From TrEMBL:
One of its GO terms (molecular function) is hydrolase activity. Pfam families: HAD_2. SUPFAM superfamilies: HAD-like (SSF56784). Keywords: Hydrolase. The keyword Transmembrane does not apply. The keyword Hydrolase applies. It comes from hydrothermal vent metagenome. This is HAD family hydrolase. PANTHER family: HALOACID DEHALOGENASE, TYPE II (AFU_ORTHOLOGUE AFUA_2G07750)-RELATED (PTHR43316:SF3), HYDROLASE, HALOACID DELAHOGENASE-RELATED (PTHR43316). InterPro entries: HAD-like_sf, HAD-SF_hydro_IA, HAD_2, HAD_sf, S-2-haloacid_dehalogenase.
Length: 229
C-alpha cells in the first residue's frame, strides 16, 4: 500500500474515511421530548404498541419505496393525529428531525482530515435525501468536506450489505483495504469489516460493540489516521 505525506509530515496510508451520519456526526438530544410534547402523554405507549408498524414505515422509506411525506402521514395516523392537523404534523416532524446537534470536534476534525489528504464520505441508511442531510450539515460547517455521499433511499442499498459500501468506494476510486468506516452500530461495523475495510467505533450503542479500533472522542480520529498501517 503506497502512502503519502500529510501536513503534519507523517506518512498516511489510509486513503479514505467513510462515516455513518446520525449518532456519529450528529445526534438529536431533544427529539424524544419534542415528540412527547407534540403528541401528548400516550405517545410512548402508542410507539411501543405499534413499534413494528413504525419500523416497517421507516424501512420502506429507507430504500425509497415510500416517500418521506408518505411515511410522515402514516406515522401521524398511527399516533392518532386528526387529518386536519396533517400539515402541522408534517412540519413538526421535519423540524424535529432537522434539530441536530453535532458532536464535539466534528467540524475541526473533518477539516483536518481533509487537509491531511484523506477522502471523506458518508454512507447512511436514511429515508432523508442527501440534499436534506447536507442542509443540516451546512449549519455545522461540514457540508463541503464530502467527496461522496451515499444514501440508501437514493440507491436502494442498505447497510450492512456490502453493495452500499462498495458503491461509495468505487466512487472514490479506493479499494476496501485503503478505507475505514466509522459507525456506532455493531452490524454496520461488521458489514464494513466484511468487505475489507477498517472498522472504527465511535459513540458505540453499548460496550459489546466490536471494532478494529474504538475511539471515545471524535477528534481521536486525527491521531488514529496518522497511525493506521
Amino acid at each position: 500500500m503506497d502512502g503519502y505525506s500529510s501536513n503534519c509530515g507523517r506518512t498516511i496510508y489510509m486513503k479514505a474515511f467513510l462515516f455513518d451520519a446520525c449518532d456519529v456526526l450528529y445526534h438529536r438530544p431533544r427529539y424524544e421530548e419534542d415528540l412527547d410534547r407534540f403528541f401528548g402523554p400516550d405517545r410512548r405507549r402508542i410507539f411501543h404498541e405499534q413499534g413494528r408498524a413504525f419500523k416497517d414505515l421507516q424501512a420502506r422509506a429507507a430504500v425509497g419505496a415510500l416517500t418521506v411525506e408518505g411515511m410522515f402521514d402514516a406515522m401521524l395516523g398511527l399516533y392518532g393525529l386528526p387529518p386536519e392537523r396533517t400539515g402541522e404534523g408534517r412540519r413538526f416532524l421535519r423540524d424535529a428531525m432537522a434539530d441536530v446537534e453535532f458532536f464535539d470536534g466534528v467540524a475541526s476534525t473533518l477539516h483536518r482530515l481533509k487537509a491531511d489528504g484523506l477522502k471523506l464520505g458518508v454512507v447512511t441508511n436514511s429515508f432523508q435525501r442527501s440534499a436534506t442531510k447536507l442542509s443540516w450539515m451546512a449549519r455545522g460547517g461540514i457540508d463541503g468536506v464530502w467527496d461522496v455521499f451515499v444514501s440508501s433511499s437514493e440507491t436502494g442499498l442498505l447497510k450492512p450489505g456490502p453493495e452500499i459500501f462498495l458503491a461509495a468506494l468505487e466512487n472514490l476510486g479506493c479499494v476496501p483495504a485503503d478505507a475505514a468506516y466509522i459507525a456506532h452500530a455493531a452490524d454496520e461495523l461488521a458489514g464494513a469489516k466484511a468487505v475489507g475495510m477498517t472498522a472504527i467505533a465511535f459513540n458505540r450503542d453499548d460496550e459489546t460493540v466490536q471494532a478494529d479500533h474504538v475511539i471515545m472522542h471524535f477528534g481521536d480520529l486525527i491521531d488514529l489516521a496518522r497511525s493506521l498501517p
